[in-house]
Amino acid sequence: MPELPEVETICRSLRTAIVGKMIKDVIVNHEKPLRGIDTSVFRQHQIGKKVVSIDRRGKQLLVNMSGKMVLIIHLKMSGTLTVAEAWEQPQKHTHCIWKFSDGSQLFFRDPRRFGYVILSDSSSLNERPEINSLGIEPLPILDTAVLHEAAVRTKRPIKAVLMDQRVVTGIGNIYADEICHEAGIDPMTPAETLTYAQLGKICRSTPIILRAAIDAGGTTIRDYKSTDGRQGKYALKLKVYGKQDCGSCRSRLHTSKINGRTTYYCPKCQKPSGRQ
DNA sequence: CTTGTGCCCTGACCGC
DNA sequence: TGCGGTCAGGGCACAA
Description:
By secondary structure, the protein is of the alpha+beta class. Helix content is 25%, strand content 21%. The protein has a four-stranded antiparallel β-sheet. A four-stranded antiparallel β-sheet has the order 2-3-4-8, with helices on one face. Strands 9-10 form a two-stranded antiparallel sheet.
């Protein structure tokens, strides 16, 4: 469900909510998100540990704990993290619960079970495939040279390259569409046909969109919520994703499929040439 | 090597 | 009310 702006929003609110807290207990209701780590090992390595810091890598959260352990959390399509009071009961599909010594708790809920919560040693974190396969971060700036390097040797649509986590990490279906619109470029354009200047335009558009989305607390289409239950407000600012008419020129939008994902674009604002 | 297609899952929504 | 089909902020395994 969440892309970079939503994960960044969750990361920030988690920091204020749980950093410094001591883990008193860990409850595992479903082992699939643990990805093969034994439930008792998962619990024993965390109970008694303190949450030291929280980072984000692309769409993943890294919860650093004392004892050189780290949780790698990916929410995929339907995952949520919620900070709750001691008396609150988890909803259905809450697969993991962390109970802190002050009574507060953290719920990991994921109806579709695509997400994961992987426990790793801090020392081997960077060798893990979930981390070392990731491309560059698009914030604070997206390096045009890196996008160019990836773009010149593929006929894939530019949107597919933007969503390729091995090239750039954090951009998903909503923001890829919004970025292509902001840049005035047709998302179907074969990447290798774009000029360096056009790729530069995309790279400058990317942080503009992502920063605005973070400022709005992310995008809530149906069920995304931050850890405090608040919805993101960037849905109000979307120009193309999920829309019928272009947010800039009001033209009727076109849709297509790229990488099997529905793609929205404006035939007037977004030309294959990138010119308007 | 690259690229496209299922598939993992549940739930919401729509038309009949 | 129910039932089937479609779709969903992601990404992996596999085939061509």
